[in-house]
């Protein structure tokens, strides 16, 4: 094949998004030479193919050649375009200083000519920097200037990017509905196929990440499914960018309860993101893998995944703290979650930590801290008004009320949390809510409803493969209040909750252990024990335990 035919073939392959074959064809055409060789347009297309495959070194070299060709031809707009994509490729390779150098070079070049669409891409980078620094209004205005250039020059890619960053700025300002409307506007163009592949992948990933940060689960799920359809339509898509897509897919599958496939996607993401392109994002993939292992009870594998994610810059919280709690290392759990909250200022980021903080501080017996955490989470949920945040807030409130032995107040909160998670189709969280519903019903003396709720929760945990939760729920089922318990309670004046406490005390559990088993505070347990001793006329815990043995109230040996 002569050089001209090779170039024609490479162009055809690039147009068909067969990027791996296109790279090979462009390389062959480049090696073949010929009178003209590869022009700057061909070099840019070659670089795009390499970039979509995560071949950072190849894309960088080809883009630098394209930039020099544009510069020699006094093509300022083309040179700016090459410089913009160089900053992206170099950033994905972790060469941030090098990327900054190219961005500065492009900025000087832009100053030499009239405003153009390519200048708008530099404004997008500036808006991105302003967002990272917390300058939200400035970021919105900068993205607005980019949008004006896009509309003037008819650049759909730039318009979509600008709208996306305006939406991000508005969400950061807690103007949530306005921000989501801007994101939806950007996604209309993306899903309609109006944007080029690099912009399409960029916008999908950033919009989904924003929705996940906001815990806007319905949109995150809808856009992730759309992203899956787009990636499945690409004949050759691999490398760093595809790894980011797999992280989003893994999180979605974990939420909807398909944990085996979620683990497969997370492992693939880990493998693709550790090849030198997008490594700074690999921590998120390892964190997802750790979460799946933790929920399934594979604690050694979870810890290994969390630690591996840490090597790539990912904070393992709240997952690692919840792992420590499951391992009954409560002090370590409390230390980890407190540290994470102490260095987190962003409200949405804190909202991802606060549910675990409430759960852990309750287990540690620090009801006052749990109350503060639940109140902060409620305030965030009130501001952003997302169903998932509302569900987490209601669940935290229910757990706190149960710890304070206010079962009547806890029950509607637990039921509301369950309905919200059920409607969002998040089965694991819905099952956790049913456990709290059961505990509230048991404290109120309704053992029939307790049995129904615990059976439903246990069945859900079994389907999911959530072995630790299944085992805990089965233990709660076997500790039910039977007829003998009710007769003993009627004869002694003990309430159903006091019978539960007495049973555990008779098994030798400390106040702290009883509190953990019954989701109560230690202060509440101590009050119950005082009431039990008074009602039984027992001088000590030992005497109360003797009453329990005499009336058959002891549980199975531990």
Mean pLDDT: 90
- Helical content stands at over 70%
Based on Cα principal axes, name the global outline: elongated
What is Rg? 29 Å
**H-E string:** HHHHHHHHHHHHHHHHHHHHHHHHHHHHHH
Number of helices: 30
Q: Indicate the structural class.
A: mainly alpha
- Number of DSSP-assigned strands: 0
Q: Could you give a short account of the major beta sheet?
A: none
How much of the residues is beta strand, in percent? under 5%
Low confidence ranges: none
- Amino-to-carboxy terminus distance: 78 Å
Please give a structural write-up.
The protein contains 30 helices and no strands. It is mainly α and 558 residues long. Helix 1 (3-15) packs antiparallel against helix 2, helix 3 packs antiparallel against helix 4 (56-72) and helix 27 packs across helix 29. It is elongated and about 100 Å long. The termini are far apart.
């Amino acid at each position: 094949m002569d050089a001209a035919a090779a170039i024609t073939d490479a162009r055809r392959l690039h147009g068909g998004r067969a990027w791996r074959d296109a790279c090979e064809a462009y390389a062959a055409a480049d090696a073949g030479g010929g009178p003209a060789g590869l022009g700057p347009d061909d070099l840019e297309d070659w670089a795009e193919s390499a970039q979509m495959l995560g071949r950072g070194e190849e894309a960088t070299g080809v883009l630098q050649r394209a930039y020099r060709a544009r510069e020699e031809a006094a093509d300022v707009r083309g040179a700016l375009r090459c410089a913009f994509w160089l900053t992206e490729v170099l950033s994905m390779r972790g060469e941030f200083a090098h990327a900054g150098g190219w961005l500065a070079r492009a900025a000087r070049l832009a100053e030499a000519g009239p405003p153009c669409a390519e200048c708008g891409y530099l404004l997008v980078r500036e808006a991105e920097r302003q967002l990272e620094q917390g300058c939200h209004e400035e970021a919105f205005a900068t993205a607005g200037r980019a949008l004006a250039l896009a509309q003037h020059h008819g650049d759909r890619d730039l318009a979509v990017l600008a709208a996306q960053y305006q939406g991000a700025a508005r969400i950061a300002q807690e103007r949530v509905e306005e921000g989501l409307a801007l994101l939806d506007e950007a996604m209309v163009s993306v899903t309609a196929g109006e944007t080029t592949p690099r912009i399409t992948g960029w916008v999908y990933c950033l919009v989904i990440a924003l929705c996940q940060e906001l815990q806007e689960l319905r949109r995150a799920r809808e856009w992730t499914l759309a992203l899956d359809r787009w990636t499945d339509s690409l004949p050759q898509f691999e490398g760093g960018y595809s790894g980011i897509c797999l992280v989003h897919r893994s999180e979605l599958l974990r939420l909807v309860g398909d944990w085996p496939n979620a683990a497969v996607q997370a492992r693939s993401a880990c493998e693709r993101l550790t090849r030198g392109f997008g490594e700074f994002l690999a921590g998120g993939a390892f964190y997802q893998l750790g979460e799946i292992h933790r929920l399934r009870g594979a604690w050694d594998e979870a810890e290994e995944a969390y630690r591996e994610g840490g090597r790539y810059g990912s904070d393992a919280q709240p997952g690692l703290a919840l792992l420590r709690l499951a391992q009954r290392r409560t002090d370590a759990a409390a230390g980890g979650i407190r540290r994470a909250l102490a260095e987190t200022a962003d409200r949405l980021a804190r909202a991802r930590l606060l549910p675990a903080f409430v759960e852990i501080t309750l287990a540690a017996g620090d009801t006052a801290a749990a109350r503060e955490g639940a109140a902060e989470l409620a305030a965030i949920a009130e501001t952003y008004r997302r169903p998932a945040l509302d569900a987490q807030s209601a669940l935290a409130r229910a757990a706190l009320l149960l710890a304070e032995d206010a079962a009547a107040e806890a029950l509607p909160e637990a039921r509301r949390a369950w309905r919200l998670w059920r409607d969002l189709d998040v089965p694991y969280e819905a099952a956790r809510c049913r456990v709290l519903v059961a505990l509230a019903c048991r404290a109120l003396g309704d053992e029939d409803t307790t049995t129904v709720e615990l059976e439903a929760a246990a069945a859900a945990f079994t389907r999911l493969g959530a072995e630790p939760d299944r085992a805990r729920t089965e233990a709660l089922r076997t500790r039910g209040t039977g007829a003998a318990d009710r007769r003993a309670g009627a004869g002694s004046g003990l309430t159903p909750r006091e019978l539960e406490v007495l049973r555990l005390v008779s098994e030798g559990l400390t106040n702290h252990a009883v509190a953990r088993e019954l989701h109560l505070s230690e202060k509440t347990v101590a009050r119950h024990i005082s009431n039990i001793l008074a009602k039984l006329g027992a001088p000590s815990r030992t005497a109360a335990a003797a009453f329990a043995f005499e009336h058959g109230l002891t549980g199975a040996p531990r």
